[in-house]
Design goal:
By secondary structure, the chain is of the alpha/beta class. It is built from three helices and nine strands. Helix 1 packs across helix 2. The structure holds guanosine-5'-monophosphate. Guanosine-5'-monophosphate binds next to strand 5, helix 3 and strand 8.
Length: 182
């Protein structure tokens, strides 16, 4: 069942459906089960990477059947451009203390991998017990860095995608499916 408005109302003609909302939810359910199994008996902290990762985090945690905490970090590497500048800034730091905690960082998409590498280095310095990365989408052809990502929703082609938290110049994050721009 899908709550919400008719997505066609804000889907331009040059958007093509890549991953439907049902496929996204099905895959998140699988990842949620896997995470619950892997972290049984622990209370992991899941860290959403803003802006894009907020919807993935919100949906994913509701498929994880163990106690957990959440936090957010906001980083910026792109500005409003579609190519990574490679220059990453922290716009909102973590609030939680992750020392000796089990930490799962939740990303919307891994493109070059520079953001993941940056977060890996930064969070490792806080001495977590376990540090893992989850991403809904990964673009293997674009990965510049061999980032170690434990949970991947979908490997996709090298295309700019929007919807489900991912923006097209700050818009379209509220679409429930994922589209590529033709
Ligand atoms: P990376 O550091 O891996 O190059 O880039 C990660 C960030 O770039 C993502 O968290 C996301 O904000 C942005 N990004 C990368 N590829 C796409 C894309 O296809 N669509 C959108 N909307 N953002 C993207």
């Amino acid at each position: 069942m899908s709550a919400g408005f008719n997505q066609n109302e804000i889907v331009p003609d040059n958007y093509k459906l890549l991953i439907s909302e049902d496929q996204i939810q099905k895959r998140l359910k699988e990842l949620g089960k896997q995470i619950a199994n892997d972290f049984k008996g622990q209370k992991p902290i899941l860290i959403g990477v803003l802006n894009g990762g907020f919807i993935v985090l919100a949906d994913l945690i509701r498929y994880i059947s163990i106690d957990l905490e959440i936090d957010f970090i906001r980083i910026s590497s792109y500005g409003d451009k579609r190519e990574s500048s490679g220059h990453i800034k922290i716009l909102k730091p973590l609030s939680a203390d992750i020392k000796e905690r089990s930490v799962i960082v939740v990303e919307d998409i891994v493109d070059t991998g520079l953001s993941v590498k940056f977060l890996q280095n930064m969070f490792s310095a806080f001495d977590p017990k376990v540090l893992r990365f989850a991403t809904l989408l990964n673009k293997p052809a674009r990965n510049k860095i061999d980032a170690d990502i434990h949970y991947i929703g979908f490997d996709i082609e090298d295309k700019y995608v929007v919807g489900y938290g991912l923006d097209d110049q700050q818009l379209k994050r509220n679409l429930r499916s994922i589209y590529f721009i033709e």
